[in-house]
Amino acid sequence: MGNLVVIEGLDGAGKRTLTDGLTKALHDQGRTVTTLAFPRYGRSVHADLIHEGLHRRHGDLTDSVYGMGLLYALDRREAAPEIRAGLDTHDVVLLDRYVASNAAYGAARLRQHADGEFVRWVREIEIDRFGLPLPDAQILLRVPPAVAARRAEQRASTDAARAKDAFESDDDLQARCAAVYDELAAASWLSGWHVVDGAAGVDHAALVTRLVHPG
Coiled-coil segments, which residues (predicted)? Predict the structure, then answer.
């Protein structure tokens, strides 16, 4: 059985870059790895509804924190067989966002903390009811919200397909989300967390050694 490793962080934190770096480091160590990013835009009807909602194409859908949270959860529920298959055939399944993203953003939108009702609801839905695999390790790629916002803006200006959505455009939400992520990591929510400074260089090989237990 492989290791399920999750990368979490704000929009613009550099999760895709870290995914690429860790994938190379794993291959350099002779390990097999498969990756998956959530939401699965273009692959899941639930993810596509999320994308459309974040760009205000479904009326007040985005205003419902629980409604959006359920769409995120359903996207992962649909992907659960793919995750389990990856764990059966690879040393590492590396995910760009997972259950904690739902917990952090929803709690931040409701101005709750990591010990609040929404985070409990996310665990009950995604883990207890939908039976999603628990991560073996989670990485919090921590950057100051202002840095993440600047990166997201730069990304949007160079890639029309990655225009900023309603969440990315809300600087106050991003700041509150960063605080909830810190609380989740401190509480070891769902698994142990490894906090990485996203504004500094990352030693990918050393991080892999911390994250992955021997097969």
Answer: none
Phi, psi of 5 (to 5 degrees): -115, 130
Tokens of 214: 């021997």
Token representation of residue 160: 């029309």
d(C-alpha 75, C-alpha 67), whole Å: 13
- Which comes out higher in pLDDT, residue 1 or 158? 1
Give all domains of the chain, ordered by start, each with its CATH number.
Answer: 3-211 (3.40.50.300)
Q: What pLDDT, on the 0 to 100 scale, is given for residue 48? A: 95
Least confident of 126-130, 136-140, 195-199: 195-199
- What CA dihedral angle connects 147, 148, 150 and 151, to 10 degrees? 120
Residues 6+ positions from 188 with CB-CB distance below 8 Å: none
- Reduced to 3 states (helix: H, G, I; strand: E, B; else coil), residue 165 is coil
| CA atoms within 13 Å, Cβ hemisphere of 215 | 17
